[in-house]
Amino acid sequence: AQSVAQPEDQVNVAEGNPLTVKCTYSVSGNPYLFWYVQYPNRGLQFLLKYITGDNLVKGSYGFEAEFNKSQTSFHLKKPSALVSDSALYFCAVSPMNRDDKIIFGKGTRLHILP
Amino acid sequence: DSGVTQTPKHLITATGQRVTLRCSPRSGDLSVYWYQQSLDQGLQFLIQYYNGEERAKGNILERFSAQQFPDLHSELNLSSLELGDSALYFCASSVGSSEQYFGPGTRLTVT
Question: Which residues of B fall within a CB distance of 8 Å from A49?
């Protein structure tokens, strides 16, 4: 069965330090993978996606994610965290070309400490 | 601004009542998704429409229904409301299997 896991409910990082938000998935065939961010009282915003090609995907606000097929992971990273990065982050996965099968992780709350 | 609009922004109603939430997708997007977000349940997928037809169904209660109209806007109808239906309801739209664009949400409070 298809699934996506974000193993950490919350991640705390000091401003200026690198950050990682973890995501692992299980899907039949090749996956489409997405990261979204949600700021308080706002809808989710698309950050980046992996469809095919280079395993390192760059997205908005300096974020990037690395697709690792052998570890079925798609961790979100940023080299230097900003306080304004504090938000709720969602990983999502779907089988290739199956927009009717997308599922979201439960979210990871990222706190950047000044 | 994602280009997806939702009305109303806030809705307060009593138990047992019925409400309708409205969503207009981004121009050109044929797919519309509805989600419910509550503190204890996270983001729950409710239902997806594609070009007027139901395409996928998630954890949508029988008291809830939705439709997508010829102009591609969508409505989510919630009836016999219970206190536990209080949540944020999001609509999102997309082109095919690409990323989704979310509206600002409707905050429903059932008293």
Answer: 98-99
